[in-house]
Design brief:
This protein has 98 residues and is α+β, with helices and mostly antiparallel strands. The chain is built from one helix and six strands; from the N terminus they run βββαβββ.
């Protein structure tokens, strides 16, 4: 489990991330982002999408073949970004092939 702070003006987040092997493939799972993003709605949405994109890039460099995200319902936030429902996850989990 990796716990990483994300601190910028108006942003104080804690990212819980796990990288593991499943069926011989490397998977990156975002368990949750917790904290505060004190930005307007459009800036909040842009920030979250950019941050998830940054995490995806790091996962690709680490040879992960899939991103998964669980916790809150991210489907509206990550709409049109390639994420689909992940039925095996808890709650509103999503997955994306990298």
């Amino acid at each position: 489990m990796i716990v990483q702070p994300i601190i910028r003006p108006g942003v104080r987040l804690l990212l819980r991330l796990e990288v593991y092997a499943e069926d011989g493939q490397v998977i990156c799972l975002i368990h949750n982002l917790s904290g505060e993003v004190k930005l307007g709605p459009k800036a909040w949405l842009k920030f979250i999408r950019e941050e998830i994109g940054n995490i995806e890039n790091v996962a690709r460099q680490a040879k992960c073949v899939e991103m998964r995200i669980e916790g809150r319902d991210w489907s509206r936030v990550l709409k049109n970004t390639g994420y689909v429902p992940w039925p095996e996850g808890e709650g509103h989990a999503l997955r994306k092939v990298l």
